[in-house]
Every structure is written in C-alpha cells, then in structure tokens.
C-alpha cells in the first residue's frame, strides 16, 4: 500500500470517528422517535405533524408554554386530548430518563 493511500484511509477513518463522536444520542433519538411528527427541525411540518397540529418549536412563544419538567413528563407519560385519546405516546419504557432529559434540551435548541 502506498503512503498516499494509507493517509487517505486513516483520514477517512478519523472523519468517521469525529462524526460518530459528534452525533449526540439526543439528536439520534430525535431522528428515530420524534422527527416523524415534530420534524427534523422541530417545526412539525410533517404529514403526521400537520395532522396532529403539533406546535412549531422554533417559536419562543410556543416553548414558553411548557416548562422543562412538563416536557419531561409529557415525553415520559405521553399526551392525551380532553377526551382521553392519545395524541403522543409516552416514551418512558423505551428511553432512559437521562435520554428524555437530553431530548427536552434538544427541543429547547430549536428555539430561535
Ligand atoms: C405521533 C406524533 C408524535 C411523536 C412521534 C412525538 N410527539 Fe411530541 N407531541 C405530539 C403532539 C400531538 C403534541 C401536542 C401538541 C404540541 O404541543 O405540539 C406533542 C407535544 C410535545 C411536547 C410539548 C409538551 C408540553 O408539555 O406541551 C414535547 C416536549 C414533545 N412533544 C416532545 C417529543 C419528543 C421528545 C418526542 C420523541 C421522543 C416526541 N415528542 C414524539 C406528537 C408527537
């Protein structure tokens, strides 16, 4: 193997390593569990999000409507409408409390 090829390969590996280290678990969890409704960008402009009329979390006014504790509780236990119908399921049995806390911090970052 030539030295050029070696350094190319090593450089590639370093880039992959950096990308993995950078991908915070919260960003991954958001993508896997939450983005379907809330959108990758938190605006809720997805098919499911529009149907459920999720709020735009880039809006400071919307974010002011819930505390971190309320958001953690909603994410853990889920959200029901007034008739008791589920609007968002609870993630308490899939995600660790720490992951949920980090997801709420992730939600806060959408705010402009
Ligand atoms: C099936 C669609 C759906 C999915 C998936 C979903 N949500 Fe929701 N979420 C909603 C709806 C509907 C609401 C209520 C309307 C609103 O506040 O936007 C809501 C509200 C919220 C709120 C506001 C809570 C409050 O107290 O007002 C937070 C925070 C939240 N979701 C976080 C999450 C996180 C984190 C995930 C992923 C683990 C997630 N959601 C996945 C539909 C969803």
What is this structure, in a nutshell?
By secondary structure, the protein is mainly alpha-helical. Helix content is 59%, strand content 4%. The chain contains six helices and two strands, in the order αααααββα.
Q: What's the pLDDT, averaged over the residues?
A: 88
Q: Note the main sheet.
A: 2 strands, antiparallel
Q: Which fold does the CATH topology refer to?
A: Cytochrome Bc1 Complex, Chain D, domain 2
Overall SS class: mainly alpha
Which CATH architecture would you pick?
A: Orthogonal Bundle
First CA to last CA: what distance?
Answer: 50 Å
Proportion in β-strands: under 5%
The CATH superfamily name is Cytochrome c-like domain
Report the bound ligands by name, code or SMILES.
heme C
* Largest beta sheet: strand ordering: 1-2
How large, in whole angstroms, is the Cα Rg?
Answer: 18 Å
What does the overall shape look like? elongated
Low-confidence stretches: 18-24
Mind explaining what this structure looks like?
With 112 residues, the chain is mainly alpha-helical. The protein has a single domain (25-108), classed as Cytochrome Bc1 Complex, Chain D, domain 2 (Orthogonal Bundle). It is built from six helices and two strands, in the order αααααββα. It has helices at residues 3-22, 25-38, 47-52, 60-63, 68-77, 97-108, and strands spanning 79-80, 86-88. It has a two-stranded antiparallel sheet. A hairpin with a 5-residue loop joins strand 1 (79-80) and strand 2 (86-88). It is elongated. The termini are far apart. Bound molecules: heme C. The site of heme C has 21 residues, from helix 2, helix 3, helix 5, strand 2 and helix 6.
């Amino acid at each position: 193997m030539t030295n050029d090829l070696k350094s190319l390969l090593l450089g590639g590996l370093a880039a992959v390593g950096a990308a993995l280290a950078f991908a915070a678990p919260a960003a991954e969890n958001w993508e896997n569990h939450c983005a379907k409704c809330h959108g990758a960008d938190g605006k809720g402009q997805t098919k499911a999000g529009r149907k459920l009329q999720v709020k735009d979390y880039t809006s400071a006014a919307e974010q002011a409507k819930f505390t971190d504790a309320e958001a953690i509780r909603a994410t853990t236990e889920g959200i029901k409408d007034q008739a008791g119908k589920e609007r968002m399921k609870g993630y308490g049995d899939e995600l660790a409390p720490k992951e949920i806390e980090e997801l709420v911090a992730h939600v806060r970052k959408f705010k402009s």
